[in-house]
Amino acid sequence: MEKIQFTDPDTNEVVEFAVEEQTQLNGIRYLLVSDGNENGDSEAYILKEIKTQDEEVFYEMVDDDTEFAALAKIFAELADEETQLLY
To answer: Matching Pfam families, A to Z (predicted)?
Structure first.
């Protein structure tokens, strides 16, 4: 499973996430990531890929409610039968 590192902009804490799914919407790449806990429930987040003018890539949490709801539906459809997304 692919892992990415995410730096919390508020605390500068670096967190490693497991990439569960990915999709593209309106030309923007989104990742469904989790804390990687394979023993039951885990927290999941939707990250939005941002590219700078220098082609550097970083991710930010999706916090717009409309954008989040649309992406949550997409990721719920992509999830396997054993995975249940609650949003």
So the answer is: DUF1292
